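G., the chain you wanted modeled:
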Amino acid sequence: MQEKREESASTTKKSTARSQGLYKAIWRWHFYAGLMFTPFLLILAVTGGMYLFKPQIEEKLYHDFYHVQAQSQSVSPSTQVQAVKEKYPDADVLTYKPSERSTRSSEVGISLKDHTYTMFVNPHNGHIIGKVDDSSRLMNQIEEFHGELMAGTAGDRIVELAACWAIVLIATGAFLWWPRKKDKIKGVLIPRFSKGKNVLIRDLHAVPAFWISAGMLFLVLTGLPWSGLWGNAFQQVATNAGVGYPPSIWVGSAPTSTVQTKDVADVPWGAETLEVPSSTASQYTKVSLDDIVTIAREQHMHDGYTISIPQDAQGVYTLSVFSPRAQDEATIHLDQYTGAVLADYRYDNYGFMGKLIALGITLHKGTQFGFINQLIGLIICIGIAGIAISGALLWWKRKPAKNMGAPKVPEGSAMRIVTCIIVVFGILFPLVGLSLVIVWLLDFFVIKRIPALKRFLNA
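Predicted structure as tokens:
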């Protein structure tokens, strides 16, 4: 009996030690991941929160360019474009966006001296209302900062890395803060205001994280398809797996072109890698822009669509619309000589994954359900910013004077188990895997060989 009790006590002790080791190992990953990526998550939350309200902000900024006096008569689209050509004879006309209603201006996109501009034209008399450098538009800059930190490819990779590690933070945070006893529910579901300043800071990190983690995970997963590395690979896999472009969208045989639609026009995510067909009936006279607008109307394009104008003899007119609702998305290629529809790709043609991604993107941008969608997105962004700031405060308050305050590397198998899980995650998200290799190299060749650094990092 005594032996059984001792054996039972020993088993319990080992189990407790294993649990504590696992907790410390996960805490350690959560600690360093949070410390490294907090600044980037803060940037993504602030810029994302602002971008949600793009329609309202641009309406305020460009009110005088957007609105015209309603009149009964109007001039043709080609006359409007001609007015821009006469004003800027050296410019290349790239796009035309028809007026959506009688009080809205038309937009003509041009390229001039390595810059692109949007020209706002009164559709009733053809007068040019104003000109905006696209690179200087506030929301374009915020979008660029949100997507690539205004640092091109390098910035895109950093944002993707931060987004992937945010998933690690959510998973490890859920493990750390999950209430294992009833009396621990407070401090996870609601903050404890009467337990002192340090407890309150801890709760202001854990409580918002509990409530918004699902929303944060949703934003990360719906943002990743836009990323340069993982997003492109995912898009290729989705297309090659047969959930991308069905044969029925082509009028005739599918083209063998290597030019993708994103190379010639801004189109919805689902149509970005769609092959661009060629205009072959060059024996005919080119179709006018006026006829293209008529065809767009006949094809029931959603208001707000843009016409990308062909730039060479084989090019096509591309109609595309970033509609608020994913269900209204459409991308159409037209032969520039006959106006014939060469490809018509809409939401209904998307496969299951394509529809899921399209819905995720419109929800991510806050357009699918209007203001309610924007408001929910804003609450999540504020929550992410609050978690990032309270996490940094929590670390700073608890940090010992002589080291980083990271949990010590646990002994036993716990650290190896958690590391294996993270490595599997690194395989699913290659940039995470690459960062793990860099961390391992730093740890092996630098940290472990410099005692002061090893003590400081508690390695």
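Strands lie at 92-97, 106-112, 115-121, 128-133, 306-308, 316-321, 330-335, 341-346.

Shout if anything looks off.
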